[in-house]
């Protein structure tokens, strides 16, 4: 055994036992984020195990995203271990404060579901889905037509319980703990959490309004990433959307590394009026996923995915071993919504664009720079997130701290504009300008 602190001591005779004990201590708060662990040889000597056993325990902890190696500073608990999600970096929203931190779509722009669910129930009564039933053929056909119209290569399709479900299965199928993966920075909090939980090593790629910067993708590829995740449109949190010119540059780089797994997230397909410029097919292994959550409602846990035959076969195999399938009632409900054109994509895209552009223009008029080319969010660079969030709360607004989304990029705030109304924009812009204004100096006493 080895005493790390007054509240925890490393114990165990095997690598698995030592790693499990440390992980439990982190979860219980006995080892706080940033806590240093003793060197491998010290652990081996005091625990009376071989140095190889101690090293294997530390390797297990790194693979699980619990600890990190900080060069000469040794091994320490990750500042944000895998057991703590980025969404837990949150603020308490007092009563009466306008909450722009949630990331949800506008409920008023979601379609009513009673007809779609009733149609799915009728179909179930006529043709109940039992064990072994395949994915709904009508939904697959509708999805295939939409993907082909957007220039996505013809390839096998599958249905998963949302984007993250598909991404997790593909990463598990192709990568191993310790592998490097290129991720957007700033990026989607759930993906960054997943990367940590799988023990993968994130290689951040900076982006602008047109998507990941080619130099950043090139750097990630040269660093040996095994996979890359790129958001096609409505990037969370910046609203970036890949343009035709940017797509050509990214495709050229990816073509030099056909062994890299490309994951393309197009969750904004029904929310934006910008065309898709797909990267799919430029590498041997690829996946493109489209979630219905933002257009039809987050509780419709369903995504349509397509990819190369090997990737889709591995995804389906892992799906059969776990969840088995996505509810056919949900599949048929989504098929009904698509067939009935329940969402006016152009009108929804215009509504969100008006709110985004209105806020960005109002901030620009007050000398503030912001980003939001598509999607539900506006990304506002700030000098200090804590100060900005606190001041905004006092003025009646709740914004999400950018720390949820950032890896190495500078501080910022994310504001979800989905429920903003035109009459609110001037006051919000004024309050943001006031919250970000440097404090004035003064004398006391």
What would the keywords be for this entry?
single chain, 445 residues, alpha/beta, eight-stranded mixed beta sheet, three-stranded antiparallel beta sheet, 15 helices, 39% helix, disordered C terminus
Topology of this protein?
Blueprint: E1 2-3, E2 9-10, H1 15-28, E3 36-37, H2 40-47, H3 51-63, E4 67-69, E5 75-77, E6 98-99, H4 114-126, H5 137-149, E7 157-160, H6 163-174, E8 180-185, H7 189-197, E9 201-208, E10 211-212, H8 214-222, E11 227-231, H9 244-255, E12 261-265, E13 286-291, H10 293-296, E14 303-307, H11 309-321, H12 328-339, H13 345-365, E15 377-381, H14 385-394, E16 397-398, E17 400-401, E18 412-416, H15 425-436
Parallel strand pairs: 6-16, 8-9, 8-11, 11-12, 12-13
Antiparallel strand pairs: 1-2, 3-5, 4-5, 7-14, 9-10, 13-14, 15-18, 17-18
Helix pairs in contact: 1-3, 2-3, 4-12, 6-11, 8-9, 13-15, 14-15
Determine the structural class based on helices, strands and strand pairing: alpha/beta
Rg measurement, Å = 24 Å
Shape: globular
The residue fraction in helices comes out at 25-40%
Strand content: 15-25%
Strand order of the largest sheet: 7-14-13-12-11-8-9-10
């Amino acid at each position: 055994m080895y005493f790390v602190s007054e509240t925890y001591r490393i114990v165990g005779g095997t690598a698995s036992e030592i790693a499990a004990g440390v992980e439990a201590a982190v979860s219980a708060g006995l080892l706080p984020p940033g806590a240093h662990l003793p060197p491998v040889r010290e652990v081996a000597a005091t625990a009376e195990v071989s140095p190889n056993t101690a090293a294997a325990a530390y390797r297990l902890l790194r693979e699980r995203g619990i600890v990190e190696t900080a060069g000469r500073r040794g091994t320490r608990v990750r500042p944000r271990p895998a057991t703590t999600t980025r969404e837990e970096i949150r603020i308490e929203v007092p009563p009466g404060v306008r909450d722009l931190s949630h990331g949800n779509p506008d409920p008023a722009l979601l379609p009513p579901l009673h007809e779609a669910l009733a149609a799915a129930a009728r179909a179930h009564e006529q043709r109940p889905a039992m064990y072994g039933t395949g994915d709904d053929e009508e939904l697959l056909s509708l999805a295939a037509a939409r993907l082909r119209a957007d220039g996505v290569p013809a390839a096998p399709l599958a249905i998963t319980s949302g984007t993250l479900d598909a991404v997790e299965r593909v990463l598990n199928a192709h990568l191993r703990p310790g592998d490097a993966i290129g991720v957007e920075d700033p990026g989607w909090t759930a993906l960054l959490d997943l990367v940590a939980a799988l023990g993968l090593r994130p290689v951040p790629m900076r982006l602008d309004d047109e998507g990941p910067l080619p130099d950043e993708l090139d750097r990630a590829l040269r660093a040996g990433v095994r996979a890359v995740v790129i958001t096609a449109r409505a990037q969370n949190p910046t609203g970036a959307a890949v343009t035709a010119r940017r797509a050509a540059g990214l495709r050229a780089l990816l073509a030099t590394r056909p062994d890299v797994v490309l994951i393309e997230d197009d969750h904004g397909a029904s929310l934006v009026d910008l065309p898709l410029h797909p990267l799919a097919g430029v590498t041997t292994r690829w996946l493109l996923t489209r979630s219905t959550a933002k257009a039809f409602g987050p509780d419709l846990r369903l995504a349509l995915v397509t990819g190369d035959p090997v990737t889709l076969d591995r995804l389906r195999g892992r799906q059969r071993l776990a969840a088995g399938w996505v509810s056919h009632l949900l599949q048929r409900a989504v098929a009904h919504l698509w067939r009935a054109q329940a969402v006016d994509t152009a009108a929804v895209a215009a509504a969100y664009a008006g709110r985004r552009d209105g806020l960005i223009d109002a901030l620009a008029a007050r000398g503030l720079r912001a980003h939001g080319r598509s999607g539900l969010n506006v990304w506002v660079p700030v000098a200090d997130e804590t100060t900005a969030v606190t001041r905004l709360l006092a003025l009646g607004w709740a914004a999400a701290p950018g720390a949820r989304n950032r890896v190495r990029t500078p501080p910022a705030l994310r504001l979800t504009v989905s429920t903003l109304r035109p009459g609110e924009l001037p006051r919000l812009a004024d309050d943001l300008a006031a919250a970000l204004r440097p404090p004035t100096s003064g004398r006391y006493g």
